C-alpha cells in the first residue's frame, strides 16, 4: 500500500530524534546550520498529586556541519530544554539535553564526543514511540549508557565500511562521572558499550542488539542495595516499520545498573530502600498504525522487574499498559492523548505509586 505524503512525513519525523523539518538558517560554502525545536503544552491528570498538573516545556536546538574536504565533514549538535510549568526565577527550569561535536570520514564512519545518547539507546529507541510515556523499563537519563549521558565518545558506521547497506555498528566509551555533586544513582565509572542493528533490505524489518559494561563508583559500591563492582547490560530488539504499520519489541537485562527506591516492610518495620537492583529484567512492546488523514493510534506494554534486591527479593519496578493516539494537523502541529494504566498491585513490594496517569498535549514543532 502506498503511503500518503503526510504519512511519509510523520513516519520520517517519528524515526528521528529531531525534526526533519528543521529550519535552515545558513547554507553556504560547505557550511550548514539548521535550527529545530518544539513547544509542548501538556497536562497530566492523576490521583497522585506529585504527578498531576502542568508538564509544559520548550525545546530548542541546532545541528551544524562543515565540509572540510571531499571526505571529511565536521558536525555538532546542541539541544536545550526550558520548563514552562515553573515560577519565574526558579533555578531548576533549564537543562542541556545534548551537546557534542565530531568528524565524519566517508565510509570509515564518524566519531563524536560530548553529551549524547548512550549506545544502548540505539536498540531501546525501537519501542520509544509512545505519545508521552514509555522508554522507562531500564533506560534512564544519566544512568550509565542507557539514555542521554555525559562524557561519551562514540564511533558510528552506518554501512559497515560501505560493504553492507543498513548494517549499523556503534562503539562507545564513557569516562568517569563521580565528583561533581551528582546523585549516587547518576554516577558512573569508566565504561564501554557497543550496538549492532541491521535493516533487512526493503522488508521494513530491523533487528538489533547492544551491550555495555562499566565500573561502578566507590559510593555505588558502598550502598547496601546493589554492591557489585561492575554495572552491566545487554539488550535485543526487533521492529517492523512499513505500510503505515509500526511494531516493535525490546528485551533487556541489567546487573547492578537499574536504580531502585521505595519503602519495604522488613521484619515488620517500614524501611527506606535506595540503591540498585542486582538484576533487572525489562520488556517493552508497542504497536501503531498511521492513518492517511493524520491519526496515529498506539498501544503498548512496559515492564521492569528487579531481582534479588537486598531485603526485598523480587519486585516490579515498572509495569503498565499504554493506550494513546496522536493526531497530526500538518507537519508542524499535533495533538495527543496518552493513558498509562498501571499494573502494579496495591501491595507491591516497594510501595510504589500505582495510580493511572492521563497525559493531554498540543505540540508545535519545526
Automatic annotation (TrEMBL):
Keyword field? Cell outer membrane, Ion transport, Membrane, Porin, Signal, Transmembrane, Transport
The reply to whether Kinase figures as a keyword in the UniProt entry is no
- Membrane topology category: Multi-pass membrane protein
Name the InterPro entries on file.
Gram-neg_bact_OMP (IPR050298), Gram_neg_porin_domain (IPR033900), Porin_dom_sf (IPR023614), Porin_gammaproteobac (IPR001897), Porin_Gram-ve (IPR001702), Porin_Gram-ve_CS (IPR013793)
The residues the entry assigns to the signal sequence are 1-22
The protein's predominant localisation is: membrane
What the entry lists under Pfam families is as follows:
Porin_1
Q: Which Gene3D superfamilies match?
A: Porin
Q: Which PROSITE patterns match?
A: GRAM_NEG_PORIN
Instruction: Write out the annotated subcellular location.
Output: Cell outer membrane
Q: Ligase among the record's keywords?
A: no
* Protein family according to the UniProt entry: Belongs to the Gram-negative porin family.
Q: How does it assemble?
A: Homotrimer.
* UniProt protein name: Porin
Tell me the organism: Buttiauxella gaviniae
